[in-house]
Design brief:
The protein is mainly alpha-helical. Helix content is 65%, strand content 0%. The longest helix has 14 residues.
Length: 96
């Protein structure tokens, strides 16, 4: 019988697995914004890549969705604070 993976190894594996449909639906709901520009970028991104997002990407997207609309838009446009942990997700959103 194979031993169970260490917690750190299990977390790393989970971070690369596709996200489940319920979690994706929750993120899609949170992505509905009051600012049309954000709404369009987020919806387009989730339509194209939503099914392939990993847990780590969803976590980064969740952090971005915690921001107010104007700050989120500034970050998508490359203005405002830089956060190295969020930059890969911001790059993906700006390409959407």
């Amino acid at each position: 019988m194979d031993p169970l993976p260490a917690p750190a190894a299990a977390d790393a594996l989970r971070a690369t697995e596709p996200v489940d449909a319920r979690r994706l639906a929750r993120v899609r709901w949170r992505a509905r914004r009051g600012m049309l520009e954000n709404d369009l970028v987020l919806t387009r991104f989730l339509d194209r890549r939503g099914a392939d997002l990993t847990e780590a990407e969803i976590a980064a997207l969740d952090r971005l969705l915690d921001l107010p609309d104007n700050e989120l838009w500034d970050r998508i446009c490359g203005r405002g604070e830089r956060d190295a942990t969020l930059q890969p997700m911001l790059d993906a959103l700006s390409r959407a």
